[in-house]
Design a protein that fits this description.
Number of helices: 9
Order of helices and strands: EEHHHHHHHHH
Shape: elongated
Strand content: under 5%
Helix content: 55-70%
Structural class: mainly alpha
Number of strands: 2
Strand order of the largest sheet: 1-2
Length: 308
């Protein structure tokens, strides 16, 4: 093309036609170079540039991540200035006091969680002693609430005639895993890769297995060793449940690997809408299969006994 600059003009627009393509949507790049100036004009040192047309889906995801990161950074700056008074004001008001943007659902959630919001407002603000009191007390509160959820679920299971093993893999598991779910969702939205989102799930499960089981068993073994008694915990239907869980977990991992290898998806998370829905439904089905088979075996409908 040809650009004609009038006297005192310093900018010009270039119209570039775009053609439809049947190929898979992806970023498109092309180079623009200025050459052969006439009329005494000269070119500067940089006379060429690369223009990239970003895929809409990737661009929207990038913008969403930038907005979420900006919001998180602003919230982090606000937290450093939060006082006890501000915490109680935000806990007692709908949507933290921002009524102009509060929806009907915000009002419902506020009244449902009012007690817990006020309770957690007693936790020290993050700027006290570098945030360590906040971290330690929050960890203690999480452990306390987890114990309450476990007891309530066990009582509820007794009322409706559910075995403890079924209650553990349904009510207790869902109640204690919701924080991990929201943490993984936040990581998936704010990070460019799936590492933090998937890693959060693996890290949480490793803590549950190695620390959540290992530490109590270690303390119980030491206690019984001092008392001179034998510490024995019957496995019950644990063997069958662990085998089913391992099979479904391997299938889930193979799905993640397959998503990365399929050219039209190319990632563990996200991708085309159809593949996202299919994978989500598949993972839910795996969970239902695991719970169903474990429950049937606990009810002795499936007669499989492993390890005794």
């Amino acid at each position: 093309g040809e650009l004609v600059f009038d006297n005192q003009e310093t900018t010009k627009n270039i119209i570039i036609p775009l053609f439809e393509s049947d190929k898979e949507e992806r970023d498109e790049s092309f180079q623009i170079e200025l050459s052969n100036p006439l009329g005494g004009a000269t070119l500067g040192k940089i006379n060429k540039t690369i223009v990239t047309i970003v895929n809409d889906e990737e661009f929207n995801g990038l913008v969403s991540r930038i907005l979420n990161m900006t919001k998180a950074n602003l919230e982090a700056l606000e937290l450093s200035k939060t006082s006890y008074m501000q915490q109680f004001i935000e806990a007692m008001n709908v949507n933290g006091g921002d009524l102009s943007t509060a929806s009907f659902m915000d009002y419902i959630l506020h009244f449902c969680s009012f007690f817990w919001k006020v309770l957690f407002a007693f936790i020290p603000p993050t700027h006290f002693f570098g945030g360590w009191p906040t971290f330690c007390i929050s960890l203690g509160v999480i452990g306390f609430l987890t114990a309450i959820i476990g007891d309530l679920a066990s009582i509820f299971g007794c009322l409706i005639g559910l075995e403890d093993s079924i209650t553990a893999i349904t009510l207790v598991a869902m109640g204690t895993s919701m924080p991990d779910t929201f943490a993984s969702k936040t990581a998936a939205m704010m990070e460019k890769t799936a590492d933090n989102s998937v890693g959060n799930v693996n890290g949480s499960n490793s803590v549950n297995v190695f620390l959540g089981l290992g530490l109590p068993w270690l303390l119980a073994s030491i206690y019984h060793g001092i008392k001179g008694t034998t510490f024995v915990v019957p496995a019950g239907s644990l063997g069958f449940s662990v085998i089913i869980y391992t099979i479904t977990a391997v299938i889930a991992l193979l799905v993640l690997v397959g998503r990365r290898m399929i050219p039209s998806i190319g990632a563990e998370l996200g991708g085309p809408k159809g593949s996202k829905i299919i994978c989500s439904i598949l993972f839910v089905i795996l969970w239902v299969i695991y719970v169903l088979l474990s429950a049937l075996q606990a009810k002795d409908i499936i007669k499989v006994h492993i390890g005794g």
